[in-house]
Amino acid sequence: MFKQIFITLICFSFLFLATACQAEKEVIMPDKPLEISLNMTAKELYDANPEYKAFQEADAQPMGFTFQGYDFPTNNMGKVIFHYSDGSFNIDQVVTILAMDKVTSEQRGLNQITVAFFFDKTDNGISDADAYQKMMSFFKELQDKGWTYAHSNSAPRLTAKDSFTFATTDEGSELYLDYSYPLTFKEWMQLNDLQLWRLIYGTEIYMDIRINRQTDPSTGNRHYLISLDIYDELKKIQTNLDSEDRIRWQDAYPKIHPEIASWRLENETSAINMGLKIQQDQPDYTLPIVLEKTGIDTSKFVSIDPYKITYDEFIERQEAGEDMTPYYENKTKPNKPELTSQVKGRCLAG
After folding, report:
1. What average pLDDT does the chain have?
2. DSSP-based three-state secondary structure for 164
3. Burial letters for 302-325: b for 16+ Cβ neighbours within 10 Å, e otherwise?
4. Where are the domains of the chain?
5. Within the chain, what is the greatest distance between any pair of CA atoms?
């Protein structure tokens, strides 16, 4: 069946979602939706859903990771309700739930949960128009419940509309598409077949929504596999760090934090080259744990001004040993020579 082939192809992108590729099981699906929430322990996950014992999967993987979760056959997909602090949302046609913890103790909270599901109920697939309507409806539900665009510190500061241009242009990136931008169907079809949206709820929970849009070559049927990666603030912080630094992240983060500014400068330089306008007053979000443990307030992130210097110029001069502090916003020293991205040369202030 095409769906099983499709899951096999995409499972490498979903952190060992190998269990989703198993043979279908003749098991009666419970009427009650399976209930999950972030940072529940593995034991709590299974104790809360005894009706789903036949679908349980648990697997110890290399590097000390433990995966807990559920696997559903494509001819009898599951229903899930995801709970967070003061809300919840439902998901149908679920094929895989994967919860990850770095230690084997089931008393440790699961700080990342991936839910993979299809938009279509059968192997006949779904039209692009119907998939578009389903995704827009899901986005509207999330907006109404208080989910917002997670504007990371490496993201270019763009309007929601310009984020679409950036996501669909070769020099840009699909990683920073603002989900609140109201896509038309024509724009929906311009998206990459592997598209990502990043969301945040309050300061406590993050969600990456991925779509994988494929066509069955034997039938021409269209299939959309959706993945929700839901994770907490600690997991968010650790994504910027090398694996060996993630345990002692509070020591490593202050070292990596200044480097993030150059990542943003690279994206914003590309955006300027596309003719897009950088929203330099666009705020960043706070990471409370970072503020508590390191004293760094990420909401006051200092970015390099892309209108003063390009990414290539910045890196070239940084590698030459020059002090680049004057090129950070709010840190420009009076009468400091400045290289602009429009004029190749130095000119004194004023």
Report:
1. 83
2. helix
3. ebbbbebbbbebbeeeeeeeeebe
4. 2-238, 247-347
5. 77
Q: Which residues pair with 133 in a beta bridge?
A: none
CB 271 within 8 A of CB 156: yes
Instruction: Please tell me the distance from the alpha carbon of residue 303 to that of residue 309, in angstroms, as a whole number.
Output: 12
Of 312, 307, 9, the closest CA to residue 156 belongs to: 307
Angular region, 129: left φ>0, alpha ψ -120 to 50, beta rest: alpha
Mapped onto helix, strand or coil, the DSSP state of residue 264 is: helix
- How far apart CA 100 and CA 58 sit, in angstroms, is 10
Burial profile 57-77: b = 16 or more Cβ within 10 angstroms, e = fewer: beeeeeeeebbbbbbbbbeeb
**Cβ-based neighbour number of residue 211 at 10 Å:** 19
Q: 320-329, pLDDT tens digit by residue? A: 999 988 888 7
**Considering the entire predicted model, what is its pTM?**
0.83
E-state strands within 144-294: 148-149, 194-201, 205-215, 222-232
Per-residue pLDDT tens over the stretch 112-129: 899 999 998 877 899 999
pLDDT in tens, 211-233: 999 998 888 899 999 999 999 99
